[in-house]
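The methods section describes the discrete structure representation at length, but only in general terms. Since the whole study asks how a given chain folds, the encoding of that fold should be made plain. An entry of this sort, consisting of the sequence and the corresponding backbone structure tokens, reads as follows:

. . .
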Amino acid sequence: MTRARYNILHTEWSDGWGGQEQRIILECLKMRELGHQVVIACQPGSGILKKARELELPVEEVVMRGSIDPLAVLSLARVIRKHRINVVSTHSGKDSWSAGFAAKVCGVDLLVRTRHLSMPVSNNPFNFVYRMADGIVTTGEAIRNTMIADNGIDPGRIISIATGVSLDRFSAAGLQGVGGKEQLGIPARCRVVTMVAVLRGMKRHDLLVEAARLLRPSFPDLRFLVVGEGPGRGWVEGLIREAGVEDLFILTGYRSDVPELLSISDIAVLTSDKFEGVPQSISQAMAMGRPVVAAPVGSIPELVVDGVTGIMAETGNAASFASGIGALLRDDELRRKMGKAAQAHIMSGYTDDIMAQKTVEFYEYLLERKGKR
């Protein structure tokens, strides 16, 4: 059977550059490889606009001021007609309203809403944006199950498709080893714990800093890489100074060479205590054979199988994170075993190819459901 080729418009209201925006770019690249046409509509000056242009992905600048924005609806309708769009895929709250109305006005075949985070969805009757969509994609099973149970979403129109890892970038092959440490001023003897996350309160970097303070007496040669940028940088720097662990931490800022940083890391950590889907920082580290210490937030337990692919810490408990990190540092064989299991887990269900395949299959299913196959 010859599969349909889709003209897909992805919309994104956010002007930042985080996991959600990276998912959109990755999905566009994979769908383009499969022969589909993709376009991104986003805010002027946004992070995703810059990245799309770097990668030569078709992109349209659309000012989206809020959820109810008639001018944005008109602009998006023009984009839909210009590119002969038949699938509109929305990603944030505000663009989902404007793009949803534009899709309905233009009569596109499919309107799909992706839910990236695990924060609750309001059941206010005026919040009908999810009812407008033909289908809903979540980034984790836990988010899907919550929306079915709490928001009454029909299980037949919602699916979990985790953000896939690009194995072209995140592979255990070609590790830098000591050379990469030297570039960051890390002695070769030091073990490295890495956390990749935007610098903001919900990521709970304070727990990482306190865990480092607790681990220092037993592991004086330990180093912590904090990879990412964000509004909380000053807060994180202050935490590190107050804890007296400045010599243990390296704040790298935003880095495009995350695979190289993970290659010199022994353990990956994520200390978030809310609103996570299936975090790319975890799946990418696992693809490179790194065990993970994280809390059971959102869909993280779908990746971190406690005692198998990593260690599950107690949410919000720095001592629990320190205990998990310490257990992996003390046992080289356990760390290697969990790293191999982590990599196998990603290969079995969390690659970018699997993500793209599931997305196309969901489109086909929704079209059949609407009688438009």
